[in-house]
Specification:
By secondary structure, this protein is mainly α. Among the domains are: about 45-120 and about 125-155, no CATH class; about 190-335, Recoverin, domain 1, CATH 1.10.238.10; about 335-395. It has 17 helices and two strands. The chain has helices at about 5-15, 45-55, 60-70, 70-75, 90-115, 125-130, 145-185, 190-210, 220-230, 240-245, 255-260, 265-270, 280-300, 310-315, 320, 340-400, 420-425, and strands at about 255, 305-310. A two-stranded antiparallel sheet has the order 1-2. This is Nucleobindin-1. It holds the Pfam family NUCB1_N. Major calcium-binding protein of the Golgi which may have a role in calcium homeostasis. Acts as a non-receptor guanine nucleotide exchange factor which binds to and activates alpha subunits of guanine nucleotide-binding proteins (G proteins). Belongs to the nucleobindin family.
Length: about 450
Amino acid sequence: MNFKPGWLLLLTISAGVWSVPIERNGGNQEPKEEAPEENMDTGLYYDRYLREVIEVLETDPHFREKLQTANTEDIKNGRLSKELDLVSHHVRTRLDELKRQEVSRLRMLLKAKLDSTNTQSLQMDHASLLKQFEHLDPHNQNTFEAKDLELLISTATKDLENYDAERHEEFKRYEMLKEHERREYLKGLDQEKREKEEKRLQELKDKHRQHPKVNVPGSVAQLREVWEETDGLDPQEFNPKTFFKLHDTNEDGVLDEQELEALFTKELEKVYDPKNEEDDMMEMEEERLRMREHVMKNVDTNKDRLVSLEEFLKSTEKKEFNNPKEWETLDTNPVYTEEELQRFEAELRDKEEELKRRAETLRQEQELLKERGKALEAQRREYQQAVLEMSQRQKEQQAADGQPPAGPNGELQFQAQTQKPDDKEAKAPAEPEVQNNLPAEPPQNLPLHT
């Protein structure tokens, strides 16, 4: 798609402002097939929502036609948002669906945040909580209206403008932390080792500074170098218009921030090499950002974060284009002062003390828990001993009273009695005599009487 610079105010947000990797290949190369353009993540928490809204709006012929005549100011001040009422029904339906999905996602984020802070809120007011998100209208959570488009554009523009400042601040803190760690490391060494290490570190610094001259970004010398070494063209035939079209890689009629940063690769190669110990790649990315900002400041006259062909050609007519001042790299222009470093170190000390206090509090609580655990274990043992002693006393009392011994739970225990050995030798009782009432038989062999 070919977009006008005004609409690219949004697309530049979704195109990304991140760094371009350095390639150390030779100058003359055979043309390669154009790879599909990658959408770089902007880092905005609503990046996906922004992309999808842009893609859906671009499918509407009426809205696309209005973009052809719109300028950057029309987009920024919200006038273009009024055209949303005239887009087709299926586009509005799709935008409504995207907004509902975004609201649902934000609700999940809010719930996760509340859960992580152990905040119990059974009656959560989502409408009030959604007000903290500025890229959509929280009062209307179901349909995508003109106000939503206006809020999305203004919020994304503001966030992107603040992003560079945040990156500079983050880099400053990185550099101060690096210097702080260097000083602390040297303090821990003895005199001889400290002097030796300081000498080594100074040699690395000096080696880093011994690089070829860096051309001012956007100057004729810098562009001619790209023309010759990257494009493989005769430097004597340098033509700004042809140069612009060569590096407008997506052929949209403007150079966005990513396309501009690609122009600085040769200059960065003079100063930074990932294989060298003395070269810091974080510094290289900061240098790239500074170069891009320098070009935007001097070339981007309408401040839409894009360089049109007209703006580019006008910049080549300026005196600074042919006779620029010398470019000062980061190694000659420190990003922090000694006072800022001292304040930063004071903050680190305060944080360290706070962490120590928390660690001590946790240690004391751990010791207290151990002591309580020991006390509970001693009580458990005393209780077991008391139970055993009471059981023993019950058994002794029952034995004294002639009662059967009791079991562990107090139940009576009966034992089967065994027969004594003497009983086996006892005589069996005499059987009772059976009386016979029948007459006795007469004696035999008696004389017979006649």
